[in-house]
Amino acid sequence: MTARWGRRFARVPGGVRRALAGVAATVCGRGGRIPPQTRWGKLSDVIGTGGQFLPAYQVRYGMFTQRFAGRLLGGQMSRETTYGLPVARFDALTRETLGQPPLHAVSHLEHSLYLGDRLLRDTDAAGMAASLEVRLPLVDHRLAEAVAGLPEAERFGPLGRKTFLRRHVLNGLDPALFNGPKKGFEMPFDQWLRGPLRSVVDPVMRDSRHVSAVGLDPTVVGGLWDAFLQRGRGLYWSRTWGLFALLDWCRRHRMTA
Fold first, then answer.
1. Which end of the chain is more exposed for a tag (fewer CB within 10 A), N or C?
2. pTM higher than 0.85, yes or no?
3. Are residues 123 and 193 in the same domain?
4. What is the total count of domains within the chain?
């Protein structure tokens, strides 16, 4: 969907597109000291992608808008990254998804970035912390390679039904298991950060010397934390928790920018 919206602006001249992105950023940033960092708050970045697939994917998953990330870094955006990825990897993923059908391209990026870099790493860390070895048969490389070679319609259609999985892998199970709505599971970090964890997080987010040493702007970090505590719109708990985790890790390991 993000790429689709971006493509609507792809034929607009670059200068006009940048102007529209600036207007969108201004409008979406109204109503609070810290602009929303989700959904409509990212409209400016969506326009800026011009419908390119990988940038649109990164905008969709990014914790912060491009403009706010620049503020966090004191205006010193690294030239070694593009949309949050090292330039070499960004270029490689662009080549790998070039010309692929949209759903195949999304799957490739999900395997490479979301599953590979995040979910499997987090699962392994959680399992090892409890001395458990987690086995994930559905991501066996031979199975993944075989499924990746299927036509898009057979592999994904109809969308949201997981028909291929049900027909070929989970057949014989009670159909009622698949008929209910999707249910997520999320730890109550939002409540914890405003409650029992506040006394732990607050001094880290307000330590100007340490925040500066890590390479972030203390005023912007403190402003984000305050806006979250005041329940600013479009500021989910993950934004503040991510920064806290980075700052706390750097403190523990004596890391600086």
1. N
2. no
3. no
4. 3
